[in-house]
Amino acid sequence: MNTLPARPLRRLAPSPRVKRLALDAAVAAGLLVAAHALYRAAAGTVQLCDSTYSLVVTQKALFERTLDLSDCIPADPAARAALPGRWGGNELPYHFTRRPGPDGAPRVHYAYPLGSSVLSAPLVWYYVRVKGVDLLDADGVPRYAAEGLVQTRIAARVVAATVALFYLLGRFFLRPGAAALVAAGFAAGSPAYSTLSRALWSHTWAVFWLTVALVLLVAARRVTRRTVRADLLFGAGLGTALFWAAFCRQHAVISAAAVGAYLLATNRRLLLATVGVGGLWAAALVACSLAYFGTPQPPSVYAAGMIDGKDVPARLGWLMVSPARGLLVYCPYLAVVAGLLVACRKHLPDAKLLVPAGLAVGGHTLLLGCYNGWHGNWAYGPRYYSDVLPWFVLATALAVAGLAAAPWPRRAKAAWVATLVIGFGWGVFVHHRGANSPPAWEWNYRVAVVGDEPAVKDWRHPQFLCGLTFTVNLDGSIEE
Fold it and tell me: What is the pLDDT of residue 3?
C-alpha cells in the first residue's frame, strides 16, 4: 500500500493582530500595576471632604438595608458637634439633609450623588467582612479614619484602572510606547494623582466611566461596516457608561450632551441606541428614588442659586492662571497640546473628535465661570477640571499623532516634544506635591482667614509651594 510521506508539523504562529492585542494587554496591565503602586504609596493628607460618609451609606445599605443615616448622628451634643463637616452652626454635617420619607417619618440622608456609593459596594463588603474594617463604631457613629483608609484603597484601584483606559484610548492613534507615555504623564502629572486617588471624590468614579465612554466612542468610529447590531452594542455601552458617569457626578451631563451632539451629526442610529439605554437606566433610577425617597431624584446639596453668572470673564481668567486653581499653572502641557492641535491641524488622524472634546471642555469651563464656588473650596489644584480629564487625554493623543505625521524637520519635532516633556515634568512636580505633601493640603486653612477668592489669587503664596517656601498654620497664618 502506498503511503504519503509524513509532513513535518508546522508550529502555529500567532497572527500580528493577536500579538498587538497581547502587547496592549501587557502594557495596560503594567500601567495599572504601576499607577496603583504610585497611588498607594502617596503620603499626603487623605482628602475626605465632600465624599465623607459616602461609604458609610454603602455599609448601611449592605448590612442594615437602609439609606437613613439618622442613627449615625450622636445624641450627645459634644459628639454631634465633633462630626466631620458640621460647621457654621448647622445641626447636621453639610453632607446631610433631613426630610420626610414616603411614610412621613423624618430621615437623614447623604445628599451628594450616590453613584460612588453604589459602585463601591463590592469593595466595601470586602473591607468590612473580609478585612474587618468597620466604618461604624459600636454606637453606630461613623469612624472617620476607617472610612479614609477604605476610600483611598478603592480610589487607588479605580484611578489605576482609569490610567489603563487612558492607554487604550491613546492606542487608537499612537504606537504603544507613545500611548504609554501619554497615559503615564496623565497618571502622575494631573489631578488623577493629586485629587482623584486621594479619596473617593465624586469625580473618581465619574472619570472612570467617562473614559470608558470615550474608548467606546472612538472604537465605534473604527468599525468598518456599520450594522444595527454593532450600533446597538456600542449604544448599550455608551448609554451605560454615560449614565453612571452622570450618576456619580452631575457635571458629566455636559460631556454626555457633547457626545450626543457629535452622534447627532455622525451616527444617529448609535445616538438612538445610546439615548435609549441611558434612558432605561435613568428610568430605573427615578423608579427607585420615588419608591425610597418619594422624589424623582435622590436628595441633593446642589441648588439653582449656585449659578449666579457674576464676574464671569474674571473667573474664567483665574480658572486658567490662578496660583491655586489655575489649569495652565498645574497642567501647562495642555497649552502645548493646544498649540500642536493648531499647528498640526492638517495631519490629525481624526480631527472630528475635537468637536465633542471642545464642546465638553468649553461647556464645562463656562459652567465653572458662572458658578459662585468656582474656586473649588478645600481642594488642591484644578480639581473641577478632573471632570473633563479624559477629553484632555484624547486631545493629547490626537496632538501627538498629528506631530508624528507632520512632514516637519526633526529639529522642529524635537522642539515640540521637549516642550511637551517639560510641561509634563512640571505637572508631575506639582501634582506629586498635592498627593504627598501634607503642608500643600494645609494651605487650605488660609481660606478660613482671608476667604476663598483672595487665597486662590495670592501669587505670593501659591499652594504648590506650601511646605517649601512657606507654611500655613492651623489658624491660617503664614510663616515664611
Answer: 58
Q: Mean pLDDT throughout 291-305?
A: 87
Inside any domain, residue 207: yes
The pLDDT tens digits for 382-433 are: 999 999 999 999 999 999 999 999 999 999 999 999 999 999 999 999 999 9
Measure CA 451 to chain center. 27
Q: Is residue 371 part of a domain?
A: no
Q: For residue 289, is it within any domain?
A: yes
Mean pLDDT (the chain, rounded): 94
Q: How many domains does the chain have?
A: 2
273 phi, psi to nearest 5 deg: -65, -40
Identify the CA nearest to 189 among candidates 463, 450, 434.
434
Answer yes or no: do 207 and 137 share one domain: no
Q: How far apart are CA 301 and CA 459, in angstroms?
A: 32
Per-residue pLDDT band for 308 (boundaries 50, 70, 90) equals confident
Report the SS3 class of residue 478: strand
**348 within some domain:** no
CA angle 113, 186, 48 (to 5 degrees): 35
Q: Does residue 176 contact residue 27 with C-beta atoms inside 8 Å?
A: yes
74 within 8 A of 80, measured Cβ to Cβ: yes
Q: What pLDDT is attached to residue 7?
A: 58
DSSP notation for 191-250 = HIIIIITSS--HHHHHHHHHHHHHHHHHHHHT-SS--HHHHHHHHHHHHHHHHHHHHH-T
Q: Which of 255, 275, 299 is the last residue of a domain?
A: 299
Domain that holds residue 89: 54-141
Residue 106 host element (H or E)? strand 106-110
Tell me whether strands 106-110 and 96-100 are parallel, antiparallel or unpaired.
antiparallel
Are 112 and 57 a contacting pair, CB within 8 Å? no
pTM score over 0.85: yes
By C-alpha distance, which of 354, 181, 364, 159 is closest to 256?
Answer: 364
Read off the pLDDT of residues 111-142 as tens digits, 9 standing for 90 and up.
999 999 999 999 999 999 999 999 999 999 99
Phi-psi region of 132 (alpha: psi -120 to 50; beta: other; left: phi over 0): left
Instruction: For residue 98, count CB atoms less than 10 angstroms from its CB and return exposed for 0-12, middle for 13-18, buried for 19 or more.
Output: middle
Q: All 3 cell numbers of residue 307?
A: 449659578
Mean pLDDT value across residues 438-449: 94
Contact 197, 152 (CB under 8 A): yes
Residue 176 Cα distances to 24, 184, 346, 418, angstroms:
7, 12, 23, 19
pLDDT at 10: 56
Please say which residue of 114, 141, 168 terminates a domain.
141
Q: Which of 303, 98, 113, 295 is nearest to 203 (CA)?
A: 113
CA distance 460 to 36: 34
